[in-house]
Amino acid sequence: MTLLLSLSRCSLRSQLRRLLPLALITFCSVTYALAADTSIISGTATLTSTDAKPFAINVTTSSEHERQLQLSYSAPVRIKQVLSDSLTHLPTFLGNDVKQDPRIYWTGAALFQAFPHPQQQTVVDQINQLATYWHDERQQAVLKLSQQIEQLTTGERIFTSLDYDNVRLNKQANTLITHDLTLILPPRPERILVLGALEKSVWAKWQTRFDAEDYLKQGKPLSNANNSDAWVIQPDGTVEQHPIAYWNRDHHDIAPGAIVYLSFSSLPKGFETLNEDIINLLRNRAL
């Protein structure tokens, strides 16, 4: 198996707009390349395939970060090897980037097949259509929700464990990688996104021992907001239902970088699955 390394500058958002070739300068079996702008061309990633075609893993520390480390493989490789190669080369790659925290927040680490998520625009369109049904304060609130979701970076996420210790010790977690993917190894976020049936979305500072109700106090619920439970999408994509009413409130921890979604308790005909569609999309957000 041959491992090729390259350095590139691009954001995931820029990848959605243009595709430019990356020129590689070969030095034996290890290659470093520098490009002004590069794109990821993601194939249909099948984690159990034995296809031996060469492929690349683009590694970044943020979906908004302009710099990416590219690991190229000539044969299928286990995720343990990809993580090991990433940990080996990321410190050198980051160099003197003083703004970048070198510590990886494994809870938020994620693999993606492609950007954006294929359902993102569909969900945004659904929310915009919902706004036409209401002619009170809910209309503007729903339009703001649509704008917030449209601004999020979402992708086709592969829900597999990326905790390095777990991957090393658990053979079932050591997934086989065979196609082009993007690996995000972020530092720990300091904020929580609170959105849904609220007058506007809120980026709240993460607080130890804060629960869903604490974060929802920083926003103003709409008249048709669910007043019993909130949905929490943890950074690893796990979806949890947290009670928030005075009669059922029970503390549940929320990890840094999570999303608190307050669902709509009643929706017009034709929008019955909107809450579920939004939650499923938010599971695929990239940090």
TrEMBL record:
Annotated InterPro entries: Caps_syn_GfcC_N (IPR046459), Caps_synth_GfcC-like_C (IPR010425)
Domain Capsule biosynthesis GfcC-like C-terminal: 205-285
Residue ranges constituting the Capsule biosynthesis GfcC-like N-terminal domain according to the UniProt record: 89-188
Gene3D superfamilies noted in UniProt: 3.10.20.700, Outer membrane lipoprotein wza domain like
Protein name: Polysaccharide synthesis
